[in-house]
């Protein structure tokens, strides 16, 4: 079964890491409204564009999403 993007993103959490994807993961962890069950790019993009004030650039999401897709194919 395919894991959700949120579940993948939580594997990138590290409070001591200041890389953009790790910071995105750390902040998403505290976002109670994050679409935790979704793996759909469009759904996640819409949510983050409207509610992801903690995400300085959608490029960070795009990078994380590509890594998520690659992890699902492995």
From TrEMBL:
It comes from the Bacteria. SUPFAM superfamilies: YozE-like (SSF140652). InterPro entries: UPF0346, YozE_SAM-like, YozE_SAM-like_sf. Residues 4-70 form the YozE SAM-like domain. It holds the Pfam family YozE_SAM_like. Belongs to the UPF0346 family. This is UPF0346 protein FC90_GL001119. It comes from Latilactobacillus graminis DSM 20719.
């Amino acid at each position: 079964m395919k894991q959700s993007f949120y579940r993948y993103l939580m594997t990138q959490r590290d409070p001591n890491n200041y890389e953009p994807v790790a910071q995105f993961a750390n902040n998403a962890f505290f976002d109670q409204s994050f679409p935790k069950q979704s793996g759909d790019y469009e759904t996640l993009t819409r949510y983050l564009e409207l509610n992801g004030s903690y995400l300085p650039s959608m490029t960070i999401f795009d990078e994380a999403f590509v890594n998520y897709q690659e992890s699902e194919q492995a």
